Amino acid sequence: MTKKLPQYQSKSPCCHRFQTQDPCEVAYLIEVPLEDLLNPRNTREKIRTLMCKLVKVPYFEIGDEQVWGATAMILSEFLEVIRTGKSSLSL
After folding, report:
1. What per-residue confidence (pLDDT) applies to 38?
2. C-alpha 76, offset from chain centre
3. How many angstroms separate the CA atoms of 17 and 29, rounded?
4. Of 16, 22, 68, 86, which has the most beta carbons under 10 Å away?
5. Distance of alpha carbon 77 from alpha carbon 82, whole angstroms
6. Is 76 exposed, middle or buried (0-12, 13-18, 19+ CB in 10 A)?
7. pLDDT band at 86; cut points 50, 70, 90
8. CA 57 – CA 84 distance, rounded (Å)
9. How many domains does the chain have?
10. Is residue 90 one of the residues assigned to a domain?
11. pLDDT at residue 37, as a whole number
12. Helix, strand or coil, per DSSP, at residue 60
């Protein structure tokens, strides 16, 4: 069974104050311009051990912040749709 993660993105000309739905799940929010996410210089990879195997793990480095894991995977898929108009996911 696959658990679906809620995904939110927005664009607005004015400032908003965002709140997390579950403070136990999200420590804090990072607001990033789309241009920064699309910039390939902000995408990195590290070799990590997962389930006793070495794997390349992509992440985003935006300023002093590093975005890993499911959030990085969701952002990568979102950026692919922005760049190509298509998703590589088969739903």
Report:
1. 93
2. 6
3. 10
4. 68
5. 9
6. middle
7. confident
8. 22
9. 1
10. no
11. 92
12. strand
Angle at 49 between CA 45 and CA 50, to 5 degrees: 100
In angstroms, the CA 71 to CA 5 distance is: 10
Whole-Å CA distances, 39 to 35, 61, 67, 70, 78: 6, 10, 14, 20, 14
Tens-place pLDDT, residues 32-55 = 889 999 999 999 999 989 899 999
pLDDT confidence of 4, banded at 50, 70, 90? low
Kindly state whether residue 62 falls inside one of the protein's structural domains. Answer: yes
d(CA 75, CA 43): 11
Task: Look up the domain containing 64 and give its range.
Answer: 34-84
Candidates 34, 90, 83, 36; CA nearest to 63 is 36
Handedness of CA 75, 66, 22, 31 (dihedral sign): negative
Tokens of 6: 């809620």
